[in-house]
Specification:
Helices cover 26% and strands 36% of the residues. The protein is α+β, with helices and mostly antiparallel strands and 390 residues long. The N and C termini lie close together (9 Å).
Length: 390
C-alpha cells in the first residue's frame, strides 16, 4: 500500500532545513521510493540537498525552487529567510527512476538523454506508467518531445522551476545535480492508480483571432493581421500604454489567451507577459501561425475556487483512496490571487480530506486531458493524486 508524508521547514540554515524536512517525511515509511522537494530561492540548494541526503541516503530526490511559498496541510509556508517542503512516498510495488541534466546544446536531445537515464536507474528499457517533469522556463515543449522520442506518448505531468521575481534565479535539482537551465524527470513504474487534472479553469469569451505573425515561437506579433497588443487591449478594454513592458504580466492574469488542443478537450493557457514597443507581446508558451487564440477570463474568486474544484476532481476520479497529492499551481496565478492565497490553502485542505499534499508554485505547468497530447501551458493547475491501491 502506498504511504506518504509531507514536511516543511523555515529554518534559516539550508542544511538544517533539508535535514529537518527529511526526518519528518520518512517517519514510518519502510522505503522511500521518491522525495519531491520544493524550496525558496533564498536557500543554498546544494546545502539543502546535503541535509536531505544525510537522512534519505540514496533515495531518489527531485525538485525545484518555488515562487514565494509552498502550501501544505498546515497552510501557506513562506519566510523571509527561506522555506522548504518535502513529499516522500513509499510503496513496495512502485519503482521510481530519477534523472536530470543541464540543457546542453539541444533540449530535445537532452530530453532523450534523461529519459534513458531514468529507465536505467530502475534497470529497465520499458516505458514508465507516468512521467513527472521539471524544466527551466522557455523550452519545455522540446524536452517533452525528447522524452516522448524514447518512451512514446506516456502521460507527463509537472511544472517549471520558478523564483520570486521572474529574474532567472530558479534551480532544478536531483540527488547529485543542481542547475538553472535544464530538465529533470521522475519515471514511475507502478500498478497503482495515478490521476492528473490539467486545467486553466478559465472561461472562453467571444473574442478570438488567428495568429498571423510570430517572431520565434513565443513572441506574438499579429492577430488577424493587426498588432497583437492593440488587439488584446481592444478585447479586454484596456489601454495599450497600461500594458507596456512587464505591466502586461499582471494585467493579463485574469484575462489571458488560450489555445485549444486538436480534440478541443483542453484549452492550454498562453500568458501574455511582456508588452513590447513594436506592439507585439511575449507569451509564456509556444504558438503557431494560422491557429486561433481565444481571450479567456476568470475572476480572482474563480481562480481561488478552481483549486478546490480541481483537487476534488482528482480525488473523485481516483478508483481508490488517495495516498498523496502533488499539486502544481502557477506562480503567476498566485501573484494574481495575492494576499488571498490563504483561501487557496483552506480549499486544498478541505478537499484533501486528510491526505498528505504539497503545493508548489511554478512558471509553467504540464499535463494532458482526455486522450489529448502532453501539453505545456502557463497560468494553469496540474494536480496529481497517487492512489493507495490499484
Amino acid at each position: 500500500m502506498l504511504k506518504s508524508n509531507v514536511s516543511y521547514s523555515i529554518d534559516k540554515d539550508s542544511f538544517t532545513a533539508g535535514k529537518a524536512c527529511a526526518e519528518k517525511a520518512v517517519v514510518d515509511l519502510i522505503e522511500t521510493k521518491v522525495a519531491f522537494v520544493f524550496s525558496s530561492v533564498k536557500y543554498n540548494q546544494n546545502k539543502l540537498l546535503e541535509g536531505a541526503k544525510s537522512v534519505l541516503g540514496t533515495a531518489p530526490i527531485i525538485g525545484c525552487t518555488s515562487s514565494g511559498a509552498i502550501i501544505v496541510p498546515d497552510g501557506v509556508v513562506s519566510s523571509e529567510s527561506g522555506f522548504a517542503g518535502m513529499l516522500a512516498i513509499g510503496d513496495d510495488e512502485t519503482a521510481v527512476g530519477v534523472a536530470g541534466s543541464e540543457r546542453g546544446k539541444n533540449p530535445r536531445e537532452t530530453g532523450k538523454k534523461v529519459a534513458k537515464e531514468a529507465m536505467a536507474k530502475v534497470g529497465t528499457d520499458k516505458a514508465p506508467a507516468y512521467v513527472y517533469m521539471i524544466a527551466s522556463p522557455g523550452e519545455e515543449e522540446e524536452y517533452v518531445k525528447g522524452i516522448e522520442d524514447v518512451v512514446g506518448c506516456v502521460p507527463v505531468f509537472g511544472g517549471s522551476a520558478a523564483d520570486d521575481s521572474i529574474s532567472g534565479d530558479w534551480k532544478i535539482f536531483t540527488n547529485d545535480k543542481c542547475f538553472s537551465n535544464g530538465v529533470a524527470v521522475a519515471f514511475f513504474y507502478t500498478n497503482k492508480s495515478i490521476r492528473n487534472k490539467y486545467t486553466g479553469a478559465y472561461h472562453e469569451t467571444v473574442n478570438s483571432g488567428i495568429v498571423t505573425k510570430l517572431n520565434g515561437r513565443r513572441q506574438l506579433v499579429e492577430i488577424d493581421g493587426k498588432p497583437a497588443l492593440n488587439v488584446y487591449a481592444k478585447w479586454t478594454g484596456k489601454k495599450v500604454k497600461d500594458l507596456a513592458g512587464m505591466n502586461l504580466l499582471s494585467a493579463s492574469v485574469t484575462e489571458p489567451l488560450g489555445v485549444k488542443d486538436r480534440l478541443g478537450s483542453l484549452i492550454a493557457i498562453r500568458h501574455p507577459m511582456i508588452g513590447n514597443e513594436d506592439l507585439s507581446m511575449n507569451v509564456g508558451n509556444n504558438l503557431a501561425i494560422n491557429t486561433a487564440v481565444i481571450q479567456m477570463q476568470a475572476s480572482v474568486d474563480e481562480l481561488i475556487e478552481a483549486t478546490g474544484k480541481t483537487l476534488k476532481n482528482v480525488r473523485t476520479n481516483l478508483p481508490c483512496e488517495a495516498g498523496a497529492y502533488l499539486l502544481i499551481h502557477s506562480g503567476e496565478r498566485k501573484l494574481g490571487i495575492n494576499e488571498r492565497i490563504e483561501e487557496v490553502a483552506e480549499r486544498l485542505k478541505k478537499e484533501a480530506k486528510g491526505v498528505p499534499f504539497l503545493t508548489v508554485f511554478t512558471f509553467g505547468e504540464y499535463g494532458t486531458e482526455d486522450h489529448g497530447e502532453n501539453t505545456c501551458g502557463r497560468l494553469m493547475l496540474s494536480f496529481t493524486g497517487f492512489g493507495k491501491n490499484k
